[in-house]
Amino acid sequence: MRILTIESTCDETAAAVVDDELRVLGSVVASQDALHQRFRGVVPEIAARAHVERMLPVIDEAMRRASTVWDDIDAVAVAVTPGLAGSLVVGLVAAKTLCLALDKPLVAVNHLHAHIYACRIARGADIFPCVGLIVSGGHSSLYHCRGPTEFELLGQTIDDAAGEAFDKVAAMLGLPYPGGPALAGAAATGDASRFHLPRPLLGDPSRLDFSFSGLKTAVRYALAGVGKIDFAELDLDPRLVADIAAGFQTAIVDCLVGKSMLAIDRAGLARLCVGGGVAANDHFRSRLESACAAGGVELIIAPRELCTDNAVMGAIAFEHIKVGAVAPLDLDITPGLVRGGPSA
């Protein structure tokens, strides 16, 4: 059995062909980073228009790489939640059109659940039950994953997501977009102890939520004090940039690791699965590996190529097909807030 999966929740247009043994036969991701760089964040209207232009070529290329013809496709899966409304609509319309023309079933995918399923694909074996952590530009969420179709939300960000905070602090520091990799690069030579930045909610064991807005504000005050400021006018010393970046990155990672280990204890499990763009961060991966090793927790982190948005993780659709959960053609999107727009 083969399915075509489509991903267009934010600013990557992606398609993949995967079989029921979770072998990736063909995968294509078209990034929009260059379109959004001057805004230092994703502009929803630009993202949606780019999806319109790229969707059919990306699907065609994925099919070509998979050496697959349409008669070989048994179903079409598409991410319908959460995400930017305009972006989601483009993917859903493409999927519906293909299903109608080919008389194939449609499968709805939850983008966040799919990020955890990327760990299942990479491991090549069952990962459930587990605690799932998704850390991306729009989401920082913890789930009790009892099975591939049974996710219970344990906690999430109450304001900025981790990836959003990375992008906005990188913009303050004059680093290029996307901010996560740029900030991590600057942090590599920095002194994380120079600035004492807060770890919001980390000291509250009763909550599994995250909050990074205050941490972002603390960086702003460390850089420029109180009052209005145009960060583009600041002449920042490279050492200051490196030290702020290192301190900020360490504070974010402290919060993510601390709450993840608390969630493990709360759920009574010994397996943590992690996905999302921030999971590609080397410092985060290293700290999480150490914490899990010390706590006797099995850690499964999606490989870097499956951390950022992609269509391969849409293979979670096979789990829905197994239980007969196909979608009607009047299916609608359920937009969720994908943060990370122009920096403020």
What does this entry look like structurally?
The protein is built from 11 helices and 10 strands. The chain is of the alpha/beta class and 344 residues long. The protein has 2 domains: 2-115 and 309-322, Nucleotidyltransferase, domain 5; 126-306, ATPase, nucleotide binding domain (Nucleotidyltransferase, domain 5, 2-Layer Sandwich), CATH 3.30.420.40. It has a 5-stranded mixed β-sheet with strand order 3-2-1-4-5. It has a 5-stranded mixed β-sheet with strand order 8-7-6-9-10, sandwiched between helices. The protein is globular and about 60 Å long.
Q: Structural class from helices and strands? A: alpha/beta
Largest sheet: 5 strands, mixed
Helix content: 40-55%
General form: globular
Distance between the termini: 47 Å
Question: What is the β-strand count?
Answer: 10
Low-confidence spans: pLDDT under 50, at least 5 residues? 338-344
The CATH topology of the largest domain turns out to be: Nucleotidyltransferase, domain 5
For CATH, the homologous superfamily of the largest domain is named as ATPase, nucleotide binding domain
CATH architecture of the largest domain: 2-Layer Sandwich
CATH class of the largest domain: Alpha Beta
Total of domains: 2
